[in-house]
Amino acid sequence: GVKPAMRRPGEYAFMPDSLPQEGVPKGRLEGPFEFHSKIFAGTVRRYWIYVPAQYDPKKPKPANLLVFQDGQRATNPEGSLRVPQAMENLIAKGQMPVTIGVFVTPGNTSETYPTDLAMRNPNHRAQEYDALNDSYARMLIEELLPEVGRKYRLTDDPEKRVIGGTS
Predict the structure, then answer these.
(1) C-alpha distances out from residue 6 to 9, 74, 78, Å
(2) Is 163 helix (H, G, I), strand (E, B) or coil?
(3) Is the dihedral of CA 20, 97, 105, 130 positive or negative?
(4) Tens of pLDDT along 34-70?
(5) Is 80 exceeded by the pLDDT of residue 2?
(6) What span, in angstroms and rounded, lies between the C-alpha atoms of 64 and 41?
């Protein structure tokens, strides 16, 4: 069996679903890709796409969709979230349907995404995540997801789409 990782006091203890498992088909994490939004003009963001091993573009049924905020933290294989790894394990066990993950950072007001941010927040995060309007949802629905959808078959069924984050 897989043992939970060692941790310091006060830190999250990883359960087996957050760790690589023997015999689980490996998906792939593509990216980072840079994306310039027209809705948030003058910003650039990064995104990654997690494609499970079970995804088959020839199947008539499109993949479910998970959009995850602060994608730089969610995809970090040494971080506290490890969302693609958990998806990989849950899909393999049949506890989660075949789901493509889109992990997106907030925007940064620059021509290219700063490489020195590491896990820190880009400078346009508050204007996107905390605004009381539909701009962020529109950016995802009208701009980013159609771009991902040109490469992968994503469901349009709202019951099979989810958005998540950590705060």
Answers:
(1) 10, 20, 13
(2) strand
(3) negative
(4) 999 999 999 999 999 999 999 999 999 999 999 999 9
(5) no
(6) 29
